[in-house]
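hi! just following up on the protien thing from before. the input was this:
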Amino acid sequence: MRKTGRRLRQGAVIAVALALVALSTPAATATDSTVTDSTATDSTATDGTAGVVPARVHNPWAWQATVGDRPAGRAALVFFTSRTRYLESTGVLVGRDGGYRLIPLHVAEDHGLISPDGRHYLRPSGDLLDLTSGQQRRTIPVGMRPLAWSSDGQRVLSSRSKDDPVISYGPDNQQLNDPQKPDDLLVLDPYRGTEQVVEAGTFAAHAAAAWSPGGDLVAVAGPPDVPAQLAERQRLVVTDPTSDSPQWEVDLGDRRMLAGPAAWHPDGRRIALLAFDGCAGPHCTPEQVAERTWRIEFLDAATGRAFGQPLPVADSTTKIVGWRGGDPVAKQSIAVDGDDGDRQAILAALSPGGTREVLVTAPPGSTDLAVPGDLLTRAAFGGPERRPSPFAAPLWFYLALAVPTLLAGALLGRHRRRRRGSAADTGPGPTPQPEA
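and the predicted 3d structure came back as:
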């Protein structure tokens, strides 16, 4: 019994100590550029690898703390996976000090955007999450869909749906509203909450957008009207955000699309498209879709005409997120060990010879992967493999460990005191007297 009681007391001390460690972790402030996780054992900012994108990251622990629980500083990358305790798509921040934190998403919420300096996460809901403090505030109206940050991190290109959510009818059964209104293209200041409408022509929806390297022009693509949207046909427009009319536009058809938020080449002279040969449109079978052959094409940024030679790419390529010199860095979704049912996101540098160099590998089950623009611009890849610390947990997890142990210790102590009390009440038996 003594050994059991001693073990319970030791367990209680350990659990309380862990809870105290969690409570004593210093909170990040809004001015922090990096915050060292005082309980993390995987890596710190003092190892010389801060500000470098890790080559491989892993799924978090089920009890991993959220950014709001315990901020981990600016992001080295963010990936998205449903393999968390939320059992649905969740952002996983990997900080520049190696700490892992969760970014829970709202129900049916799309993925947001990481600011170029890795400090903020902008939600489609309009909330701006400060990753260095864990504080979140509403800065832009709801109904937005952020498309791309400007390279200086001060503006966001966003689409705003104007569709009526519910169709209503008059007394003669005539439709009173329009559930398919053209969307607005806006330039937002996510810090002050201001917005500016961009005159880029009529779009039923905006599929993708990219800023020019100097931030003076934008490229936006999407279906111009509802029939084009149903047929999966797109148009590309290049315009000055402050101008009343576009500089040029070109029909992309149903086999070409803007290559993502970093589609504009760093030299400013060309814009990248993703294009394919094969079956196009909404009626293609999965087998026909799998037979498509993909490439990256370029358009002259000044005229919209074809520019240079295309670059063959794998069908797993979904968008260009940055550039390493003149080579595009693309996000791809690849099968894990040849199993099409289990996929993972990677970033890869694609060379003109058709070879691929994998730069970042997210874990199995990951569906998206984002790296802040400042690290992409510096091509800061090749950092050490990061693993989540099991000690980077929220306070409630430590309390969940401590409370049962403390209760068990208290009950055991009470039981032992009652036994001692019973023994004292009984007292010793009568002392036998020697015979005369």
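The helical segments are 2-24, 226-231, 286-290, 373-377, 395-426.
Residues 18-48 have pLDDT under 50 and may be disordered.
cheers
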